[in-house]
Design a protein that fits this description.
By secondary structure, this protein is an alpha+beta fold. It is elongated, with a radius of gyration of 46 Å.
């Protein structure tokens, strides 16, 4: 008691100022995000669990219960060691539905605003003794250091500074379910301070009060045995009950729930905390017995009480300052987070339920100032409770009263996770019974001088004489659980509760219903929401949800609109709680109810299964693997496939159909059949009227395609969803091939007709030629002779034309190197040009045959003529009016190189590599078959030559050059005297 109030105030103010500076450093970016978002920061922030009870209350409990004080640390360590099965499912729910408090979670699961209100009130009543404990330790520490008769005012000043910090840095975000990097960093800083202070105090006890471990052991074996004998070792039943209370505290206390679940942290970080937090708590627990034994050796426990033995280790100011700072660090962190958590719960489940926001001019600002006022009120209520009640009770009594009260929510939380059959009537009944027993047994005796009213049921008379906290805990929890179970089994569970139970159960997959909304697009959400939230807030919330989902405001798919509605509800839940958010969304964004029974949203179920598949185990994992295998078969089927529900909503659009249509499946799944892009809506509607549609002409971006559709109907029953499946086959190539075959048959008939006509024409032409020749011998008249010569020339021309037609009609047979003979490439080219000119097409294109007459190749003249006709006709089609086509030839060693060059647009590289494959064409559908160049390639291969394409040719900016290399010498095994099979 050698310190002044001014020095203690300066010490406490300096520490709180350090907290402000730390927060400012994080907000200004002086401390990088690499540090503030490190998993160690989260673990240290969870150290907020080590409140003033860990600094002072543990000493008091250790003095009376011995090693029973460890239950405080082991209970929460056990909860975090069970993180994969206990904490992770809760984290999944809070993140998915933007739930920021225990009241939010209960209101969401049991679909009642009054459930949230009840949990909020119970939390407030239970936390008040814990808040009073924090303030009481501040007042007692100030008294021990200064001897001031009334330290309450200084404690109030510190509480006001703590409230100011919480108001400034705890309400920066509009949504409660947002990561507060600044707050987490400051709470982590306070955990480092209190851990460092406790370890330093333990070191002082071990090496200053005692002369090291050996001296400590000597004292324990000597004078210390008397103290140890006076400590009642905890009864095993008491020990287990304490473990249960502190286990429940790790899940239910508002400040622990807020840090564990409300901050948007990853699953990996939470799992990492499952071992790092117990390590932190172990380090916090180690100095407790050292400080206790040191205080007992010095006799301080007789002077200042066992809770504050750290102040009796030395009269030095710095030692007492360590004990004070340790308590202040623990107290400030606990009060800040409790105030933030409770203010949100009171706002969402009391004030907004009683007075819902109706188009507030500035909703965000209004909510922020309401929270700030509630933060101040919560901290002030803790100070008032300390002033009126806390000063009359020790720390253990206050702490146990708080922990037993919060434990009443444990049955509801476990049922929320593991019992889908629980309903709100059972939960409220059980919670009310358990809370009533707790109130009359532990809470009301704090306020009055009346003895505790401890109810002992018949048959449990053995509990008489046990500590009040122990009896109240067992009886209240037993009554709570029994009432909960009996009422839940005896009463009806609403459909909304069953749906929420599926969402909350471990490993459950949510199955929302496929219902259409009244709004037609996301843009139409803004106007109705503005009536509740105001224009600015409604626009912000809709835009935020659209951005989160990656949707367009004009997306009118029913599936997209349902997801948008759910996202808006989740975001509003983070802003004002699930109850108010659900009321607003149900009222202003209603579903359109029809006569048809809604079915499960299978696409959403699929997406959730994909998100959770890494967490499935055992049979569920095997079944999910089978589901994914079957879905992959349908998705990658080489035939187009789509599926519709009974409500005509599109459920599947596989990869083959996406490639055929050019429409990504993600952009149309969830749309109605009649809203699909043209022409698919009309085409698939026609398929609904007929089981089979054969080769329907459909105009797509790449031209006209011929599609065949097959429809199969899925009959619905109790276990199987109904709908239709449609297969879409692209028969375009088959249709074009059929047309080409018809065309080829027609050409063959024309060829046969031409050969017959040529034969019939040949006879009179031969006669005319003979008569013309005879005229030259029958007369010497120059005019007659000139006329006879002209007649002879014209008949020779007709004979050549007829001969060309007959030869071309007989060509086209495949050969294998037989019957090859020297062929003049110039003559073959002239004949091909002659035939092309007969077609009377391409007359505006100029042909230039630069092939030397003397250059010959070994081959079949008719087949090579087919090659030149194909190449020249392609060059003609690719050329513009007035273009030039050049045919040239030159020897290259033992080969003859022939080139055909045009001045057209050229070929795309992607098409060029596939031109020799059947059905590859650059012409519009119906104008080219894609069989000409494959035939050319085949003929050149038969002649042991090769063919290449240059597009554009070297030195040219456009055009195409076809290069042929043909042999000029006879290959081994070739014969020249084989009889022509056509004769």
């Amino acid at each position: 008691m050698n310190s002044s109030l001014a020095s203690v105030f300066a010490l406490g103010t300096s520490y709180l100022l350090l907290m402000f500076l730390c927060a400012l450093a994080v907000e200004r970016g002086w401390i990088g995000r690499r540090i503030t978002r490190h998993p160690a920061v989260y673990t240290l922030a969870l150290g907020v669990y080590a409140s003033a009870w860990a600094i002072y209350g543990s000493l008091e409990l250790a003095a009376s219960e011995g090693y029973g004080y460890l239950a405080y640390y082991l209970g929460v360590a056990g909860a975090f060691l069970l993180a994969p099965v206990l904490l992770v499912p809760i984290q999944r729910m809070t993140h998915t539905y933007q739930l920021s408090s225990l009241a939010d979670l209960f209101a969401f699961r049991f679909r009642s605003r009054w459930v949230g209100t009840l949990v909020t009130i119970i939390s407030l009543l239970a936390v008040l003794p814990l808040l009073a404990l924090q303030v009481q330790t501040l007042g007692d520490a100030i008294y021990l250091m200064t001897g001031a008769a009334s330290p309450a005012l200084l404690a109030l000043a510190f509480s006001a500074l703590i409230a100011l910090f919480a108001m400034l840095f705890g309400t920066r975000h509009r949504h409660q379910h947002a990561r507060h990097d600044t707050l987490l960093a400051v709470i982590a800083f306070t955990s480092i301070i209190k851990l460092g202070a406790m370890l330093a105090l333990g070191g002082i006890a071990l090496f200053v009060v005692f002369d090291g471990p050996a001296d400590l052991q000597l004292w324990l074996d000597g004078p210390g045995q008397a103290y140890q004998a006076g400590v009642a070792q905890p009864d095993p039943a008491h020990w287990r009950t304490l473990l249960l209370l502190f286990f429940a505290a790790a899940l239910l206390m508002p400040h622990i729930f807020h840090i564990t679940f409300a901050e948007t942290l990853s699953r990996h970080t939470l799992l990492q905390a499952s071992w790092s937090l117990p390590l932190f708590l172990l380090l916090m627990a180690l100095p407790v017995p050292l400080i206790l034994w040191a205080g007992q050796r010095l006799g301080s426990d007789q002077l200042i009480g066992s809770a504050y033995l750290a102040f009796g280790l030395s009269d030095a100011f710095w030692v007492q300052a360590l004990a004070f700072i340790a308590g202040l660090a623990a107290t400030s962190a606990t009060m800040v987070i409790i105030a933030l958590a409770l203010s949100g719960m009171i706002l969402n489940h009391v004030l907004l339920v009683a007075h819902p926001p109706e188009a507030q001019p500035n909703l965000y600002r209004w909510l922020r100032w309401l929270r700030r006022g509630l933060i101040a009120m919560v901290i002030l209520s803790g100070w008032l409770f300390y002033q009126t009640v806390g000063v009359n009770h020790d720390l253990t009594t206050l702490g146990l009263a708080a922990f037993v009260g919060m434990a009443q929510c444990l049955p509801g939380l476990l049922a929320l996770l593991y019992w889908p059959g629980a309903n709100r009537k059972g939960m409220v009944s059980g919670l009310a019974v358990g809370t009533l027993i707790w109130l009359v047994g532990l809470w009301l005796p704090l306020l009055t001088d009346l003895p505790a009213l401890v109810l002992i049921p018949p048959g449990l008379e053995m509990l008489a004489g046990e500590p009040d906290w122990y009896v109240v805990t067992l009886v209240s929890l037993a009554a709570n659980i029994l009432t909960f179970i009996i009422v839940s089994l005896a009463t009806h569970t609403s459909p909304g509760e069953r749906a929420a139970a599926e969402a909350c159960s471990v490993d459950a997959v949510i199955r929302p219903k496929r219902l259409p909304l009244l709004a037609a697009t996301g843009e139409e959400f803004k106007l109705p929401l503005a009536r509740a939230l105001g224009d600015e807030v409604a626009e912000r919330e809709v835009e935020r949800a659209l951005t989160d989902l990656g949707l367009s405001p004009l997306d009118g798919r029913p599936y997209a609109l349902r997801r948008l509605r759910d996202r808006i509800q989740a975001n509003l839940s983070g802003l004002m709680g699930p109850s108010v958010a659900q009321d607003i969304v149900d009222r202003y964004l209603p579903y359109r109810r029809g006569s048809q029974e809604p079915t499960d949203d299978i696409h959403f179920v699929e997406s959730r299964l994909e998100a959770y598949r890494s967490r499935l185990t055992g049979l569920a994992r095997e079944l999910d693997g089978l589901r994914r295998y079957h879905r992959r078969i349908l998705t990658r089927l080489p035939v187009g496939l789509c599926a519709f529900g009974v409500d005509d909503e599109l459920l599947m659009w596989n990869d083959a159909l996406a490639e055929l249509s050019g429409i990504d499946g993600n952009s149309v799944v969830g749309a109605r059949r009649d809203s699909l892009p043209t022409p698919w809506g009309e085409l698939l509607s026609r398929a609904e009227q007929d089981d089979h549609l054969y080769k329907q002409a459909v105009d797509l971006e790449d031209g006209t395609r011929y599609l065949t559709l097959h429809r199969a109907e899925l009959k619905a029953d109790d276990d199987v969803r109904g709908g239709t499946v449609i297969l879409i086959e692209d028969h375009s190539e088959m249709k074009w091939l059929e047309d080409e075959l018809v065309h080829a048959a027609r050409l063959a008939s024309i060829g046969q007709l031409a050969a017959g006509v040529a034969h019939e024409i040949g006879n009179p032409i031969t006669g005319i030629s003979s008569l013309a020749q005879n005229l030259r011998y029958d007369t010497s008249d120059p005019d007659v002779l000139e006329t006879a010569a002209q007649i002879q020339q014209l008949t020779d021309r007709v004979s050549r034309i007829v001969g060309s037609l007959v030869g071309f009609a007989h060509g086209g047979r495949h050969i294998s190197g037989t019957g090859f003979a020297p062929v003049s490439i110039a003559a073959v080219t002239d004949e091909a040009l002659h035939l092309l000119q007969l077609a009377r097409s391409g007359e505006d294109v100029r042909y230039h045959n630069f092939c030397p007459v003397e250059l010959e190749t070994i081959g079949d003249a008719q087949r090579l003529q087919q090659v030149m006709i194909n190449l020249l006709s392609n060059a003609r089609d690719a050329s513009e009016a007035g273009g030039n086509i050049v045919i040239a030839a030159e020897p290259e060693g033992s080969l003859l190189k022939v080139t055909v060059t045009d001045e057209g647009e050229g070929l795309d590289a992607r098409v060029r590599d596939h031109l020799f494959e059947p059905f590859t064409t650059t012409k519009p559908p119906g104008e080219g078959t894609g069989l000409g160049l494959p035939l050319v390639y085949s003929i050149i291969a038969e002649h042991h030559g090769r063919i290449e394409i240059e597009s554009p040719p070297p030195g040219h900016e456009r055009g195409t050059r076809i290069c042929l290399w043909l042999p000029t010498e006879r290959q081994d095994g070739e014969e020249t005297n084989e009889q022509d099979s056509d004769r």
